[in-house]
Amino acid sequence: MTARPGGRTARVRAQVLDAVRAELAEHGFDALTVETVAARAGVHRTTVYRRWGDVGGLLADVFDATGGDDWSPPDTGSLTGDLTALNHEIQDAYTAEPSVMAALIAASFRSEAAESAQRRLWDDRYARCEAVVERARHVLPPGTDARRLLVAATAPLYHRLVLLREPADPLLPGEAARAAVLAAEGGAFVRL
Amino acid sequence: MTARPGGRTARVRAQVLDAVRAELAEHGFDALTVETVAARAGVHRTTVYRRWGDVGGLLADVFDATGGDDWSPPDTGSLTGDLTALNHEIQDAYTAEPSVMAALIAASFRSEAAESAQRRLWDDRYARCEAVVERARHVLPPGTDARRLLVAATAPLYHRLVLLREPADPLLPGEAARAAVLAAEGGAFVRL
């Protein structure tokens, strides 16, 4: 989105994204349609179709707007601490009511706009999180691949919450972080 | 399913599940409907609705029938070897053309029958895989939780394939297995 802040385009976007959040909170993902969002935002549905394409495009833009360009990974002073804090963020975002992340994941199985938005978003987040690994290079074997370590640290959260549909587990963020750090220290993610 | 093998019920089931596989192979998951499956199987669609409920129920039964009651986890002689072989099975099943597993996961976001079938199936598979950990107790710290170790070993496969939509990575099954074993040896999954 390249809208001038405060311009008409930006105002329409804010109205529409607010409507998505409100519809999601009141009626859930399955009931979300371009029509109900347009009606709630007070804009014509062709405006929504033209700009966002479908429900997936709307959710992706809500997520982009929420995540924001200023997100940065936690900095707690230790690798395990940073990964634990990151996992808590993931778990909180997925179990929030309503959860835009959960809706976007569900939408990604129906909408290419949602799928590509989700991939772009995760790619962006993993790229930013590489800073967490860079800060900890002195405790890791040379050649440790940052992305592989980050995916290993966060994957159990996604698997349990999204696919196994387990409730939030307060011990899991720390456990998954410690497991990934032990594996990394043992050389599991070294790529030479 | 409690159909007598060889009876009429079992024959109808085989016809219908064959039709699901064929439709999936030819037209993909998005085009799969109870109507097209019933037509292809030569049975009335009310028979399909009554017995399987929806597309999710059909996919779940294909998966149950495929997995079979005789599935057992790999036994290669080492914990890392067993988990690597298990991860190769997961990766192969998910990237097969067509993949019933991929279709069932997609369906689980639209159909409660598919969601509960998927949970039941994974629960069954993880329960059977606990034998892999039991065989390796002598190399693991006392109190190591088998399920947590198994989920950690397999989660990166699901995360990369299902959510990040990455292509199959021939190195990932072994890497994820080794990472989980290193973490387990370090005590990451001890529950006292």
From TrEMBL, chains A, B:
InterPro entries xrefs: Homeodomain-like_sf (IPR009057), HTH-type_TetR-like_transc_reg (IPR050109), HTH_TetR (IPR001647), Tet_transcr_reg_TetR-rel_C_sf (IPR036271), TetR_C (IPR011075)
Top-rank lineage group of the source organism: Bacteria
GO function terms (MF aspect): DNA-binding transcription factor activity; transcription cis-regulatory region binding
A matching Pfam family: TetR_C_11
SUPFAM superfamilies: Homeodomain-like, Tetracyclin repressor-like, C-terminal domain
DNA-binding region(s) from the entry: 33-52
Residue ranges constituting the HTH tetR-type domain according to the UniProt record: 10-70
Keyword line: DNA-binding, Transcription, Transcription regulation
Protein name from the UniProt record: TetR family transcriptional regulator
Organism: Actinorhabdospora filicis
Lineage of source species: Bacteria, Bacillati, Actinomycetota, Actinomycetes, Micromonosporales
